[in-house]
Amino acid sequence: MPKFAVITGASSGIGAEFARQLSARGYELMLVARREDRLRKLSAGLTTTCEIFPADLAKKSECLRLVKELQGRRIDLFINNAGFGDCGMFLDTDLDKELEMISVNVRALHILTKQVARILCKQGHGALLNVGSCAGLMPAGPYMATYYATKAYVVSLTSAVAEELRRKNSAVYVGCLCPGPVNTEFNAVANVKFALHGITPEYCVRCALQGIRSHKTVIVPGPAVALGMTVGRFLPRPLYIKIAALQQKKKLYR
Known about the structure:
The chain is of the alpha/beta class. It is built from nine helices and seven strands; from the N terminus they run βαβαβαβαβαβααβαα.
């Protein structure tokens, strides 16, 4: 029986690349995103069976509708990828956009992590990968304050759930992908230009799938970003935040 994977935020970027690489490995897929036209276009280029599930995960009811659809089905891999960012001074950025970001990056991810992990534990196997960011490994991100805060939530929640499952000797894997800059549509949505050179979605997803196979709780693609995160742990917190502010300010569109 072919393996089955669910990917949220599958209409572009990292989510679409997960779909391509998993399909190439023989997975049957459920693709979840708001933009149905993009999902259908992506599905048409894949080699395995793809279900299309249009949903706006900023709405709690849509998250629960997805969970209901998955009840009673075997899930081998769930990619919790939906999310977006914004850049600018906290006093200037749009409140409604930030609240929607919190709804998608935090609330939707929380609902799906809890409910899908329950399904995986009931079936006795499977993997759940939350897509965070290296932003979530840093103490704060001036000029992207809300986004950094949401991704810190993702890393903290995932790490805690993973440890709980390890302590009960569960066969279920839960991990968090924490990439640095990735060359996707993210920068246009977030109104930024990366200060550092980004990695490709293809490389990011290959690292993620290898990390899942290795049962790594936190997966940081790319040696340069991984080294930076390691070095950052030894910096005084105020200095680390000042360095982050300098880097983030370079991202703002002029």
